[in-house]
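Complex record, three chains
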Amino acid sequence: MRYIPITCEQREAMLRAVGVSDVSSLFSDVPDEVMFDGELAIPSPMGEMELASHLRELADSNSPTGRLVSFAGAGCYDHYIPSIVDHVIRKPEFFTAYTPYQPEVSQGTLQAIYEFQSMICELTGMEVANASMYDGATALVEAAFMAARVTKRSKIVVSEAVHPEWIETLDTYAAAGTVEVVRVQFESGVTRTEGLAGLREAVKDAAAVLIASPNYFGSLEDLNLIGELTHEAGGLLVVATNPMLLGVMEPPAGAGADIVVGEGQPLGNSMSLGGPAFGFFACRQKNIRQMPGRLVGRTVDVDGNDAFVLTFSTREQHIRRERATSNICSNQALCALSAAVYMSAVGRHGLADTARACVSKAHYLRERLIATGRFTSPWDVPFGYEFALSYQGDVAEMQRRMLDRGYLAGVDLSKAMTPLDSGVLLAVTERRTRAEMDSFVREVESL
Amino acid sequence: MNDRMNRISGVRPKRGPRGLILEVGSDDARCVVPPELDVPDVDLDEVLGGAARSVLPHLPQVTEVEVARHYAHLASMNFGVDSGMYPLGSCTMKYNPRINEDAARLEGFAALHPAQPVGAIQGALELMVTLADVLGEISGLPSVTLQPAAGAHGELTALLCFRAFHTANGGPRSRVIIPDTAHGTNPATVSMCGYEVTTVPSDDRGRVDLVALREALDTDVAALMLTNPNTVGLFDDQILEITAAVHEVGALAYCDGANLNAIMGVSRPGDMGFDALHINLHKTFSTPHGGGGPGAGPVCVTPSLGAFLPGPIPVKYDDGTYGLSTPECSIGRVRSSYGNFGVLVRAYTYVRALGGAGIKEAAEQAVLSANYLKERLKHTYELPFDRHCMHEFVLSGRRQKKEHGVRALDIAKRLLDYGFHPPTVYFPLIVEEALMIEPTETEPLADLDRFADVMIAIAEEASTDPDTVKGAPYSTPVRRVDEARAVKRPDLRWSVGE
Amino acid sequence: MYPKDLKYDKEHEWVRVEGDIAVMGITQFAQDQLGEVVYVDLPAAGDEVVAGETFGEIESVKSVSELFSPVSGEIVAVNDALDDTPETVNASPYNDGWMIKVKLSDTSGLDGLMSAEDYEAFVNEA
């Protein structure tokens, strides 16, 4: 069999050493009633060459964005990934290693995570970041739970302008009754702050207010105002954000965010149908003992040399068990590594230039689309590199026809938490050229 | 050696950390440069509503060769499955086939956007449907969600389904029973799902104490969470009595699939009476651990619980096309998109390479290799449970501790000097000075033998020269680290000016 | 190891009664079992403690243990020095490593505590 390095002869010798004649004797503790004596209904094995062709065929029956011009975003973006990123994460010392529980032989993973934590702190302006969560959605949920522990409250206020899949995830976790979720509406593309009385009422007794900026619709929120209201009421401000945009946008820490989370995919991770990537999670040092997830710290070894190690482990499930800050016992280490290599490869200037290119191109495309007369802007608020427009026609039909012409024409907003009629969400990354955008505009105009 | 190196000022020792990437480079260094802007440049402060960043984040500003060398050095300080035997109990550190890696990187998989219409991702959906069917077949629990990102996430998903099931049948109930041998994720998950933990003891064979279990069971109990084979590496032969007792009070039986590698194709959790199981694809299905993730923790359940699974779920229609469907009483999403798709591609590649017979053979060899090592080591170290083990077994370093003051941790650290990753130590909690050894089926016999030889040599060394063992390791990039200092003087990030 | 002027409980806390004030901490045996103490989480002055209930937590690198109060009353002082130097609990469990001072609301509970001899016997038995 593939991947078993034991020969038949060796196997016989091992059986003799164990003192059994047949491997089935080793399963003597398994009661007869639960022995599976059939054959697994699983397709027959394939040799590597055959398997490689099969996989290529399966992959080719999809339409990857490499063969399309993509304007789809909504949390997952078609950014360029420098070659060096994959070459680093393909090193077997990184990808075949386990969680770095033995620091003496895991300094590579540990130092890379420490550097990742430092970079996330730099991006977000926060004091401490963990080694990563599963994704943006679960990072947001963990932030809500952490806020509940810090404030000893249970009400979680979430803006409906947060990604609908993230709100749904929060609702799923909250169904266990450990927290209560209250939604606040948005209008004009941002969370409603007019008629502040309503919002003030909602945040009363709240453990946390969860807000995204840019939000699901790409709009930037007035974090200062929402932060003030939240803090007046004694809650924590949790801000979800896009790490790419932080290359050019003020970090949420400045607006009083207590916890900053987000989906890390834009930083050097392939889209891969939405996973795996990672969630980032940063907060203030004073709340470190309520943080979920792994943390790497720098210390010294017995010889006094610098050394890195997993730390503050008493927060975690393997020690604190039912009183742990989370049940999470992994992180998305390899995806976090991709992000760290990405940030190293582009640097602060490259990240800023890339983000600036995205923002400039998004503003260019939006203007061009509105100029066609087929699209109108539902609101006029600042945005980064993603924006919502109303289409004068059937969005799904437009997307279908544009797909035939080789374009992924954004995300249909009819499924948003607060649906936008005939709304379409378009993202423009640095990969889109002016020529691609101009053809897209021409094609959509010609429908 | 170090002294002599340090005499040259500014030269750091070759071993160990050599400085952070954040500390090198210069402001005009460039690695990857984005193309020239081909549209009008915007005034950032204006378009971002006054929120343009005034100070750039301090990310490294380095050249490509510096990036390459930095991470090559970091990699050189790591130990992976490719570096040597990694017998970490309960972690199933088997070889990670390279074709899995190539598969996940095919453009037709890696460059898919989750919002693409189903018509544009038929191959991806077919892959997921087939993988789910395979997992359903191996587990005997045919309804499957591929969404959970990790084993602990799978536990949470299943328990939330249980909660929804009970709520639909009268009330959520209040307690979940866990044996004292359980992984820490089990009780932590129970708390997150709003339940109380009730712990039941194990008997002298590491099995669930049936009498204690029966006493703990009543109609307030929502579920039992059990790892079978259990965390001492034994199959609980009372399994049918256990699951029957659980069902008798209307509770559900959850199987922690951490140890599935021992029994795939041999015995199915569904046939044992379990209602749900999570599978760690990064253990049993050969996807890499990645230094802590990403993995994937699909959950398989009985058809009656299938209605509660998170959606959307990839499905095959009668016309041979594929789509997405959300179960009727779904608890909702447990994350965004469809799961860790890139990990699912790797696991799919693995099952297609092995086929049904290969999967069973992998389990059998994993069990044989563990028993072989156990036989070789049981006279040198105490063996608390002396019977055929499954894919792993637990030794106790009690004798070495009592006679020579050498602890399980010291033995683990000494193994590093001999080029082995240590076994899991101090788990399960019920065994004193536990050393939990899981060789997996992908270890060559020569490596199994060398590991046994080294373990025996270390036991000998513990008696003749215990201080050497207690001071280990000596040959690793760093030596034992001051973990107390890491907590008392937290240094969790680098900042400008350091 | 176990000063004669102190009272002990089965959770390995000690109490020194000075008038209506009880000073408490953990025993030599407990600190040895824990290993190097890296963090002590204590309540604030003014909080109430109840005999037999937890009042805080103590952590080593790989363990966390709850602290149980042997007495009831209002906390009048907390050893803030342990924030910066928690290892004092290891070095001086009975003096500089004290944790809280409680104004006793009821002294009857003191009778149930062990003497140094009884505690030593209890520890040896375990």
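Note: The domain at 66-81+347-445 of chain A is CATH 3.90.1150.10 (Aspartate Aminotransferase, domain 1).
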